[in-house]
Amino acid sequence: VCTLDLAELKERTNLLNSLAREVPARRRNERAVTLVFPGAVVADVRAFVAAESQCCPFFTFKLDEVDDTMHLTVVTPRGGEAMLGALEAAFHPDGTNLRATFEVVEG
Question: Sign of the C-alpha dihedral, residues 80, 15, 37, 95?
Answer without folding.
Answer: positive
